[in-house]
Write a structure and sequence with these properties.
Elements lengths: L27 H4 L2 H34 L4 H27 L15 H6 L1 H14 L4 H34 L1
Helix pairs in contact: 2-3, 2-5, 3-5
Length: about 170
């Protein structure tokens, strides 16, 4: 897992790096207050409801093909939808656990596999649901980056304070 990143574009009033917001959670993941836990309950429910609605829509589409004269193709269609859902779910899980920059090979393809990602939206929603049971999706990555930036900021601030203290003692002497 890569935790290196550039310095935050935003900073708090004292110059400390500000945490990056997470979709649906904002920056509540930093302090984990009441709003964070409420969202931690509502986001998985929403993802599961959206996945169920999407699965129903795909089911209706396959049923329409099955009712037509192209019934033998419905098995191939169901297989293709299943593969697309599995691939999109794997890709979304990797994005949520390791970050988008860790994608390589076929997972990194945005435009050429856009149809696969579109058809596999139910798999991506199920992966989002499963990840949101563990943490706010992407929280581990954001927390690691924020902790690293904060530690660097504290180290620099301490070093700056020590330099200024040495300069002050030299001026007095």
């Amino acid at each position: 897992m890569s935790t290196t990143s550039t310095t935050s574009a935003t900073a708090t009033a004292d110059g400390a790096p500000a945490p990056a917001p997470i979709r649906f959670f904002g920056t509540t993941w930093v302090r984990r207050g009441r709003a964070y836990w409420l969202r931690r309950v509502l986001v998985p429910i929403g993802a599961l409801a959206a996945a169920a609605a999407g699965a129903l829509a795909l089911r209706l589409g396959v049923s329409g093909v099955r009712l037509s004269d192209a019934a033998p193709l419905s098995v191939l269609l169901m297989l293709a939808i299943g593969v697309c859902n599995a691939l999109a779910g794997l890709r979304n899980w990797k994005i949520l656990t390791e970050g988008k920059e860790s994608l390589s090979g076929w997972m990194a393809e945005e435009k050429s596999l856009a149809g696969v990602w579109l058809i596999g939206f139910v798999g991506a929603l199920v992966a989002y649901f499963a990840r949101s049971l563990v943490e706010a999706p992407g929280e581990g990555l954001k927390r690691a980056v924020h902790d690293q930036e904060t530690a660097t900021w504290h180290r620099r601030r301490t070093a700056r304070a020590e330099r200024e203290a040495r300069k002050a003692t030299r001026r007095r002497a």
